[in-house]
Specification:
19% helix; eleven-stranded mixed beta sheet; single chain; 16 strands; 6 helices; alpha+beta; five-stranded antiparallel beta sheet
Length: 290
């Protein structure tokens, strides 16, 4: 019987993106690498559990959701989470950052100092700068200060990030401009927590890290896996949880790797690229009047 694989998500290391599989195996990804898998004909997507524990009932979950957790496991996963704002006693120092994903798309967020830029890579931030560092609650108050005083969001949907990736400015200076301007406005605000140490603006650019320089525009995105479906293509770029795959006969499509968690997958033999999973085409700008 052919061995099944279950993906537990995409991680970013110092060397680039890595697919992590149940059991601890890791598959490092590099540009030009072939990514190929199939869902068995009678395959079904089941809950991935919470906080390292399997779902006790292996509950079915929707094919098009990115969470891959049933309602009960999702609740347990959020019960002790900095991201869900359900923990206030973490003693670790935190960074406050400004992240840029495209024109007019800057957000504020926090991440543990010990994680370095990993959170920014996971979110697909094209460029970013630290704003300050300090205790968790001071970082949270600074985040709220920027939301209230400057209307800076703390979340930007992935669909919006994908939509602008093919239209990003060509130079680092252009991409950094909004971060620098917002950093200066934030630094001038009154009301910063005394325990938060401000940091100077230093913009880090991820275009080369993500492989987006010269990357062909994506024509669409995978909306979910289906029993009996397969996907095979050459990796040309990656940003956050997204893999940009050159699929034979279809151009470049984006796979949000959160969609493949919860499925048992089969490896696809070498030879030929293609896709038999649903793909939603991105809207195209119309040229002229007709």
């Amino acid at each position: 019987m052919e061995r099944m694989w279950k993906c537990s998500g995409l991680r970013w290391s110092a060397d680039g993106p890595v697919l992590v599989w149940d059991g601890g195996r890791r598959s490092a990804l590099a540009w030009g690498k072939r990514v190929a898998f199939a869902v068995p004909e009678r395959g079904a997507r089941t809950c991935v559990g919470a906080r390292g524990n399997a779902c006790p009932v292996r509950a079915p979950v929707p094919a098009r959701g990115t969470g891959a957790r049933c309602e009960e496991c999702a609740r347990l996963d959020r019960a002790h989470s900095v991201a869900a704002d359900t923990i206030a006693d973490d003693p670790r120092p935190y960074h406050v950052y400004l992240a840029w994903f495209g024109p007019g798309m800057v957000k504020v967020g926090i991440t543990a100092v010990e994680r370095g830029p990993a959170r920014l890579l996971e979110q697909g931030a094209v460029c970013f700068s630290w704003l300050g560092s300090g205790p968790l609650m001071a970082a949270r108050r600074t985040e709220e200060l920027l939301r209230a005083a400057l209307s800076v969001p703390d979340r930007i949907p992935y669909a919006e990030k994908r939509a602008v990736r093919s239209q990003l400015p060509g130079t680092e200076a252009e991409r950094a401009a909004e971060v620098r301007e917002l950093h200066a406005r934030a630094a001038a605000l009154a009301g910063w927590p005394e325990s938060l140490r401000p940091e100077p603006c230093h913009v880090t650019d991820h275009m080369r890290v993500f492989g987006l320089e010269g990357c062909p525009p994506a024509l669409g995105e995978v909306v979910g896996l289906v029993p009996g479906g397969a996907l095979s293509g050459e990796l040309v770029a990656a940003a956050g949880p997204d893999l940009h795959l050159a699929v034979g006969g279809r151009g470049t499509v984006v796979l949000d790797t959160r969609l493949i968690t919860g499925w048992e997958l089969l490896p696809v033999p070498a030879g030929g690229d293609g896709s038999t999973v649903p793909v939603r085409e991105f809207p195209r700008e119309q040229e002229g009047l007709f």
